[in-house]
Amino acid sequence: MQYTPMASKPKVVVTRKLPEAVEARLRRDYEPVFNPDDHVYSTDELIALADGADALLPCHSEHLDAGAIARLPASVKAIANFSVGVDHVDLDAAKARGIIVTNTPDVLSDATAEIALLLMLGAARRAAEGDRLVRTGEWRLWSPAFMVGRQITGKVLGIVGMGRVGQVTARRARGFDMQVHYHNRRRLPAEAEQGAEFHERLDSLLGACDVLSLHCPATAESHHLINAETIARLRPGLILVNTARGALVDDEALLEALRAGHVAAAGLDVFNGEPAIHPGYRELDNTFLLPHIGSATRETRDAMGFRALDNLDAVFAAREPGDRVA
Ligand code: DGY
User: Fold this and answer.
1) Which of 91, 160, 237, 279 could anchor a disulfide with 326, C-beta 3.0 to 4.6 Å?
2) How many domains does the chain have?
3) Contacts made by residues 8-11, CB under 8 angstroms, sequence distance 24+
């Protein structure tokens, strides 16, 4: 659908607190409706606020399922997400209503890859356990047998989903002399592969790596990609890293494998039902857990906001937005 430029400033419902510079640009170019206390809106609140709005600028914390999309007023022309992941929006429902949906790819790849490496190292070297020992004063000794972890240097890193974040993670991992293998819907061109070994089938990747890092979007196909069956195919002692979405993992199956030591350790930044995560993860020493902070750097959060606004600017200038996903 094409839109003619508007005479007055478009009204935009901004669901969460955004960086100062992003909010300043919103004030300059739009009529923003901010969320002063940054609470997570219920669907009813969001629908009420959307009354007379031209666009929404949500985060992954808002769930715009088909029911919510159906209740949006006809004035809403665009949903400009402050996120690369769009699993919180029913894209088909938006498309059916002619609502443009955009995301913020590229700008968070470096920050998220940093967290993937942090999780890899933290899980492999027992960082959470060590930190706890020091903080609680329970650290009593040093011995050659104390807190021995796993080394990632020179190991095989398996990447599921070799998109932008996966590719940056692969580049950073090469700094640790890791050999990169990957599974992706399509094989990458050789210059993007940089020597990484492609596995057409996920099964073949699972048994080939020492560390497995998840970087694919949450879709119906990738739901519980890590489950009892796929875990059984992993090399014993593997380290699992997830910076993508909790929905990729069947928690019960992973917890069982962590308890048994079949999966040696897991570094997780994303969870099913977050922030109300499965309590089993907290009880284990071989988990290194972060609160969904993959993109949480000043630079990246500014860039995500500007990218979302670039998309909105395009919509309201009757141009095709660069990051349209529906
Ligand atoms: C994303 O952009 O998808 C991150 O997970 C933060 O929402």
Assistant:
1) 91
2) 2
3) 10/54, 10/55, 10/312, 10/316, 11/52, 11/53, 11/54, 11/55
